[in-house]
Amino acid sequence: MLREIYIRPAGLMPAIEAAPAIEVRGAFRLGAGWLDFTALDIMERNGAAVDRRLAGLGEFFEKDWGRRTRNAADMFENLMSPRARIAGLNLGSPRIMGIVNVTPDSFSDGGAFAGSSAAAVAHGLQLAADGADILDIGGESTRPGALPVPIEEELARVIPVIEGLVGKTQARISVDTRKSEVMRAAANAGADIINDVSALMHDPRALEVAAETTLPIILMHAQGDPRTMQQYPTYDHALLDVFDFLEARIEACRRAGISPNRLVIDPGIGFGKTLAHNLELMAGISLFHGMGVPVLIGASRKRFIGTISGVETAADRVHGSVAAALAAVSQGVQLVRVHDVKATREALDVWMASTTATVSKAVIS
Question: Quick one: how far is CA 201 from the chain centroid?
Fold first, then answer.
């Protein structure tokens, strides 16, 4: 069954010094992270129609929204619950996932690291030195119009790179794949995380194999296959439709024996979305905290950034990509997947230092 109500944390502000989940003069901590929320964007859905209103926390409790529907109370609880560590990483501050493409047809770098495992390993180590907490190794392009890659070829691309990175960096290693055989082989090679753009739906054995690996899993939303996903993407309400999909995938994982503590969700910016859909998701991304698991955004160098900024070449979209990462982190997103790690790390460090409040505990109600 779909939700009757959705609540999105609003009125976000830098966290005031206090224990997570403690109310501080009308504010609550968001996911035990770096932001407090002071209001709620309440959405009630009836098919394609959505009744939306902004409510203060006092109104939410006074009108007992948590008891009015079966959904509101659990979402509110999820907003405040601390996020589980992912591959040992504490998510109390934003984390950067650096992209290591080993595909000849990557939209972002033109296959610069596809011809040599050594070059890809060196690039990954440089990203780690630049500040990446996770290195995401991908051997199959999922850009719009991309064709599938045979399993043997994908394995030949990614496994030597994973093996070359393991033990040489403290950054966690993620494998970006839709195929259960690649997931299993990557786990055996030392990968720490599985990142599946199909949310474990492309391969019939993916759920089973992912469960067996015991690794954390990133579940991403995509409407359609990469070959056709950008032809006619349509939604009743993009923000809520994507939320419903990802919530259903969390439940499917739970039924398959995969604890939500192992899961990260990604709304899939650019995967079966128009410019308007992407912007709707970016503007409302804090809604996804209501599932109680970490949120990842992968907006780096994507076409919508070029459309807005007028920058045609993907590799030149650094400034817009950094802006997208900061926009996501300003809504509490715990992980950003980026190509330009050094620029993103520097921007995040300055943003966090400039916005983190150190208010005396004496102000706590």
Answer: 17
Q: Number of H helices and number of E strands within the chain?
A: 12, 14
Active site members: 302, 337
Instruction: Compute the distance between CA of residue 293 and CA of residue 243 in angstroms, rounded to an integer.
Output: 12
pTM passes above 0.70 = yes
**What backbone phi and psi angles, to 5 degrees, belong to 334?**
-85, -25
N- to C-terminal Cα separation, the chain: 39
User: DSSP states of 184-238 as a string?
Assistant: HHHHHHT--EEEETTTT-SSTTHHHHHHHH---EEEE--SS-TTTTTTS---SSH
Position 18 scores a pLDDT of 58
Give the span between the Cα atoms of 253 and 351, in whole angstroms: 35
- Our CA angle for 77, 97, 268, nearest 5°, is 65
Output the six-digit token pair for 4: 């009757």
CA dihedral 357, 290, 172, 256 (to 10 degrees): 160
3-class DSSP state of 14: strand
Q: What are phi and psi of 37, to 5 degrees?
A: -115, 145
pLDDT the model gives residue 136: 98
Q: In the chain, which stretches have pLDDT less than 50?
A: 107-108, 110, 359-365
Using left for φ > 0, alpha for ψ between -120 and 50, and beta otherwise, residue 61 falls in alpha
E-strand stretches of 35-116: 35-37, 39-46, 49-56, 95-101
Q: Cα dist. 283→97, 145, 258, 327, 342 in Å?
A: 21, 27, 30, 8, 25
